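Continuing the series of single-chain predictions for the mutant panel. This is the parent chain; the variants come on the following pages.
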Amino acid sequence: MSKAEARSAKGFEMRKNTCRWKRVAALAAAGLLLQPVLLTEVAASALPGPTKQKIRGYMTARIDASTVAIMDDQIHAGAARIVSRDSSGERPISGGDLATGMMMEAEGVWTSHHQFSAEKITVDAGLLEKQIHETAYLQEEPRDAGKIRKGEPAELKADGEWLLLDASTKRAWTAPEPTAVDTSPGSTPQISPAKLDTTIPAYLAGYRVAYRGLRRTDGRIGAEKVELSSPAPPDAYKMPHGLEIVQAKDPQTGIDILEFRHGKKVQGRMKLLREYLSDLGDALLPAGAKGTSKALEFRFFLVEDPSINAAALPDGTVLVNTGLLGAVENEAQLAFVLSHEISHVLQVHYWREVHETRPKRVGLLIAGIAGSYFIGDVGMFLAELGMVSVINGHQRELENQADRLGLQNIIEHGYDPRVAPGFMKMVIEHYGSRSTDKIWSNHDSSLLRGSFLTVQLQEQYSERHFDGTRVDTPAFQSMRETMGPVKIE
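Parent structure:
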């Protein structure tokens, strides 16, 4: 069976099951069923009864003594067995121990839209600790760099977090010295301790920061230790296996295209659309884009692909599918997506994942890829190139890091960050399943992603007010009108 035939058969089966459920619902409404039927939110099952499900995400609210919420979904836990799980096993906890921000998995059945009756709730105890221990690359120039170096009280914006340093913070802040340059007339510019006509500052954006501390009630982190070290190596920004991405024109039609080249051989081509995306992406670049150990040229391309997705390649190339551009509701949502992808590049996530999982690395099989064809499925093509994580999502901690930094970046650029969870809600409603993984990650559900963003806004920016910040622009609306109807899958 061909791919198109398989897709058609799957669509027919889903439509058939949908019609079956509509008939069951009509009979139930008319009181003609002898036994009650609880409709689940999984169209793939056509059994006339409740189907047990699992939903997973971060707790975003407590509704009452026995009900909690993960975004719009209310989890009724009155009769549920609640346990906390870590490496040593499970231990029972009470419903009163559940708190906003906890990562939880609920097992049970859907009783109606957004209403879930839980039989068991499992809390990930490894995420309950307030102790934070992370590493990141600075995407902005630290405002208090001098104070940090001198051991004075200071603040550091890093990793999408606010770190507070005091006298007890252990610091390994080996920042480079500013460079003094002699620029007097007739002289060759050179380092000169005697003449300080001009000083080149020591830029730290792009440097690696490791930190440890305790999460405070206001969302900030009281830093116990902060360590500054070198930027990521130049190899971290290279495409694997000598691949190059080159903008070109199709020799037959003259349309703008993007070519994936290995040496002189073209491995695949994509059609390119719209200039608006490039202008917005360039405007969102943080200072860290200029502080990398290898000069990066960020390039933002809109490619013809109906899936709601985007991908960031290690060399700074960002691919946005037409399906995603058709799905976003405003410029702030698009700005968040681009900021998320920018962070994947600046945090060298592809390099880190390959470096950390080298024994499991998937090699590039150049001989197995048909050359010079137009790519219909970006995800499948990148998977063939051995870059599965780029399109399917990185490890959850790296995706969370990109989300934190994405939120921070759009706030710095004057956008309303509250639209980011709203975009994930739209994805959930569009695909009709909380376990449908169409955007960024193939192993974390849209519910998990959206609930993380919600909790991050609640905890990190609880005292901030975003009324009056930018949500949309005439440029975005003009672009959407020009595009017209967009195919979305």
